[in-house]
Amino acid sequence: MTLRLASLAFAFAVSLTAAPIHAQTSHAGDIHVGQAYARASMPGQTSGGAYVSLENTGAHADALIAAQSPAATSMEIHTMSMEGNVMRMREVDGIELAGGQKVIMEPGKGYHLMLMGLKAPLKAGDRIPVTLTFRKAGKIDTTFEVRDARHPGGGMESGHHHH
């Protein structure tokens, strides 16, 4: 039994790091989550950015109200705005999703998720589990692929960052 558990644990660990990268879609109720990725971090970096698309296919409003991952001490929902040449980010309580609305998080635009207190560097090709919590739909477990920040689709923001 111990060998079997060790084999299963090894297979699970390999699937997290060596699985082919593909778009994953998760859902609960009328909320669909897709295109989930985080940007690779630099050695010593304690926080990282993550992005996802959220779609409410129902008629009633819902909201993303929390996010968490074992890859970080905490996750925060942020919004970004430009003030002159300075990029400003601030934490928000949630992201409202009206019925039929879709929100696509992208580097340098609007909303994003921040992984705070990274437990290990985020390396391109890794996959990290994330739980998104919605006011009505509840919790959605999904996987974020880690992409190189300089790679197209991984984004590389310009400007100065201030939280």
Features:
Immunoglobulin-like; 163 residues; mainly beta; disordered N terminus; single chain
General description of the model:
- The protein is mainly β and 163 residues long.
- It has a single domain, classed as Sandwich (Immunoglobulin-like).
- It contains one helix and twelve strands; from the N terminus they run H-E-E-E-E-E-E-E-E-E-E-E-E.
- Strands 1, 2, 3, 4, 5, 6, 7, 8, 9, 10, 11 and 12 form a twelve-stranded mixed beta sheet that branches.
- The chain starts with a helix and ends with a strand.
Main sheet attributes: strand count, strand direction, barrel closure: 12 strands, mixed
The number of helical segments is: 1
What is the name of the CATH class?
A: Mainly Beta
- In the CATH hierarchy, the architecture is Sandwich
What CATH calls the topology is Immunoglobulin-like
> How many strand segments?
12
Shape: globular
Please write the string of helix (H) and strand (E) elements.
Answer: HEEEEEEEEEEEE
Assigned CATH superfamily: PCu(A)C copper chaperone
Radius of gyration: 16 Å
Helix content: 10-25%
Q: Distance N terminus to C terminus?
A: 49 Å
Topology (SSEs and partners):
Elements: H1 2-18, E1 26-28, E2 31-39, E3 47-56, E4 62-68, E5 72-83, E6 86-91, E7 95-97, E8 102-104, E9 111-118, E10 127-134, E11 138-147, E12 160-162
Parallel strand pairs: 2-11, 6-12
Antiparallel strand pairs: 1-2, 2-3, 3-8, 3-9, 4-7, 4-10, 5-6, 5-9, 10-11
